[in-house]
Every structure is written in structure tokens, then in C-alpha cells.
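**Entry details**
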Amino acid sequence: MKINSKQIIFTLLLLPLWGAVGLAQDLEDYLQIAAENSPKLQSAYTQFEAALQQSPQVSSLPDPTLTVSAFGRMVETRLGAQEARFSLMQMFPWFGTLKTKKEAADLLAEARFQEYLAMRADLFFEIKKAYAQLFAIENTIALKEENLDILDSYRELSLSKFRSGSSKMVNVVRVDIKRDEALTEIELEKEQLESLKKQFNLLLNRDRQADVAIQDTLIFNPEIQNEIINPEEAFKMHPELAKFDREREAYESRTETAQKSGLPNFGIGVDYSIISKRTDANPPMNGQDAIMPMFSVSLPIFRKKYKAAEREAELMQEAAIHNKEARENQLLSEFEQTIYDLNKADKLLKLYKRQIESSNQANRLLVSAFSNNDGDFEEVLQMNQDILMLKTQQIEALKTGFTAQAKMDYLFDEGTIN
């Protein structure tokens, strides 16, 4: 992921459990593990390697034909009896046929490689998306655990005020209700976190119980849209679209192959006959073996199969063009949604930052007023709950922005390991 001077790094400093280790290294490690371990990727790459084996198959000449004839009863000729006959024939397709077959096979193999790259980019997006979800839940748990300490301080304050006769016992009960609710939410979210970690490990195709380290912040660049002037042009290098281009080019070569297949094939060979000497006479060249060059040509008079092969290749070209157009429209739609998500996350994070600062100030005033017997404890609890909600939404906005950045990496194929 490339970071420039305009990039915004959103760090939720209110969470005390965060460390100073950067995100990129660990996430890149997870992507590398997935690239090496994923059976889906291994299958796609194996299919590419298998496709490479088509080229030497289709670009080779047909095997020569050797015919051996032995006569049960020798055929008499003027020069002697013909004992055996050997014929060797090599057929040659029309000029350029093997070349077009090789081009088509190579292009289809490249299409399989582009399919592998697209699958890898999609897997990387899913890993980043899952990683962002883990980040959000883990930090939400930390936030709520920190809020438990705040609720404990409120309980002590309300209990102290009750003992002094300046507050009601109901305020202590209200705090206990909030604490019990928070404890249940934390327990459920911890269970969800463990489940998501196992799912994340399965994405990496490793032991489900393996430890998953979640770093202290997520990074995304809301200004990236300003760097993309023409998304249609940028999408030309996307592996999914490149795959359809290679398929179209391959079927163009197959069209030419079908045309050339409808032309004659040529054969060149030699015929060798073993002749025994005559004993009843001695003519010139008595018993000399016979060597006869041969030439053959196929007659492609049944045209339906050639026309059908040519039409099939033309239709497959059209299908590749339509598939590319449909996928390009889908990518553009995803791009527009991603731009919206980036802008939304950027604006919400700025809003939540302002609101949290103002809410913290209001909360301090409410606590101070309650301590001085000039405030409502219910307002204190409600403001604390509002601050908790804002911080939780702040984490969700950060997750949304990072996921949108991961989607942008996928759309423009920047999420690969170098």
C-alpha cells in the first residue's frame, strides 16, 4: 500500500492498550502466508502451469507414419521377387497453422495466469477486510473495558453521595445495570473475536488456533480519488479485464487456425521395397531394392466442420468482449461505491473527533456539577454512554475507511506482494 504526504493516519489515542508497532509489516506477512498457503490460489496457479503444456502439444507436427508390409507369398517382379515393403510418410499442415495454434495456446495460458492474479487480489481484499473487522472488535472490547473503570468510579461517587445523604440509591443501581450490560456485551464480543480469528486463520489456510496479532491502528487514504483521473484507463491493467483480452486474442488466433485447417495438408514420404535376385535369369539391376519418393495431399471437401470451428471461434470472441464490458461496468460501479465509502469515513472521523472533544468537556462539567450537588446523575450516565457510542462509531468508521482502501487496492491491483 503506497502512502503519500496527503494520506491521513487516523489513530484512536483514547485506547490505552495500543502499542507502537506499525501495521504494514504484520499485515504484509499475513498476505504472504495466504499467497503461499491458499489451496484456491495453488489450484489456479496449477491450472496456469497445465495450460502452458498445451503450446508444445498443438505446435508440433503430427507423428510420421511407418508402414511395414511382408508378403506371405512373394510378388514376382521383372527384377526379382518382392519380399517386403516399408513406407514412411510425414504430413505437414498448411503454412502457418502450427503458429496460430501455438499463439492461441499461449494466449489462453496467459489468460489463466491473469485469472490467478485476479483471484489473488480478491483473496488479499478478503484478508484485509477480515483484518479490519478483527481490529474493530478487539478495540471495541478494549474501549468497553476501559468504560467499566469509568462506571466503577461513577459507582463510587454515587455511593459516596448516597452515604452523605445528597443522592439517591437508585443512582448506584443505575450504574450496576450499565455495568452488567457492558460485561455481557464484552463477553459476547470476545466470543465473536475468537470465532473471527479462527475464520481469519482459515483464510490463511493454517491452524485455526494460531495466534493473530492485531496492530494498533489502520491506515487509509481518502485523497486517493484525486489521483485517479480516468478509472476506465486505469482498469485496463486489472487482471480480470486482461484475462478477457487474452481470451479474445486467443480466439482470434483460433479463427485463423480454423481457416487454415480448411486448406489442404501435404505429405512427403518414401517407399522402400526389398527385392530378391532372380535365379532363372540375370536382367540388368537384378535384385536391386526399389526406392520410391511419395507425395500426398489431403482434400478438405467436407466443409461443415471447418465453417463450424471458425464460427465457434468468432462467437467465443464476442463472448469475451461482452464479458469484459460487463465486468468493467461492475468494476466502475464498485469504484464509485468505494469513493463514497472513503469520503464518508473521512467525514465521519472528523465529525466524531469534534463531537468526542465537546462531549468530554460536557461530561466533565456534568460530573463536577453532580459532585457539587448541582446536577442530575442520569445526565452523567447518558453523556458517558453517548461518548462510548461516539468512540465505537469512530472505530467503525476507521474500519470502513480501511476496507474501502483495501477495495481500492483490489480495483487497481495494488494489493500484491512485491
